[in-house]
Design a protein that fits this description.
By secondary structure, this protein is of the alpha+beta class. The protein has one domain: Nuclear Transport Factor 2, Chain: A, CATH 3.10.450.50. About 35% of the residues lie in helices and about 45% in strands. The chain is built from four helices and seven strands, in the order αααββαβββββ. It has helices spanning about 1-20, 25-35, 40-45, 75-85; strands at about 45-55, 70, 85-100, 100-115, 115-130, 135-145, 150. Strands 1, 2, 3, 4, 5, 6 and 7 form a seven-stranded mixed β-sheet that branches. Helix 2 runs antiparallel to helix 3 (about 40-45). The longest helix is centred in the N-terminal third of the chain and has 20 residues, at about 1-20.
């Protein structure tokens, strides 16, 4: 009887682990890792063809290269490349998900290489990643541009 329960528990756990690989949370975590690394090959594979990238808080901010409102995989990748950031670094205070939306709350630093070294522009941010059929269909940011700090590294 113990073996049967143990085997059933292992099968249940294994099935749950396999399903978790396709869970929105797992896809969103992989996406955020690729986004931070500015890994455009991985990002291309993760975005749905008709994905949307939007930051409504970027619409009236001068000097940031915005507004950030791109539709389609190629437009999104070109837009992100246009920032010229070496990498992004998220500091996540809280993550939650529901109905295919994964929410990351915290701060993000955009890291740029300059002739005198690295510089980071850090912003408080909420990033919401929508996952459908294992792909990112929407990346939506709400960025506190007025809370930006600049750091030499």
């Amino acid at each position: 009887m113990i073996r049967t329960l143990t085997a059933a528990a292992v099968l249940t756990f294994t099935g749950a682990a396999a399903q978790a690989q396709d869970a929105p949370e797992a896809v969103a975590e992989a996406y955020l890792a690729a986004y931070q690394a500015q890994d455009f090959v991985a990002l291309e594979a993760l975005y749905a063809e008709d994905a949307v990238f939007i930051d409504p808080t970027s619409e009236a901010i001068q000097g940031i290269g915005g507004p950030f409102n791109w539709t389609g995989r190629e437009a999104i990748l070109a837009g992100i490349r246009g920032w010229g950031a070496t990498r992004l670094e998220y500091e996540i205070d809280r993550t939650w998900s529901a109905s295919g939306h994964v929410v990351f709350g915290g701060a993000v630093a955009a890291i740029y290489e300059t002739e005198t070294g690295s510089v980071a522009y850090r912003y408080p941010i909420i990033t919401i990643v929508t996952i459908e059929d294992g792909h990112v269909t929407e990346h939506r940011d709400y960025t506190d541009f007025s809370g930006m700090t600049q750091e030499a590294r």
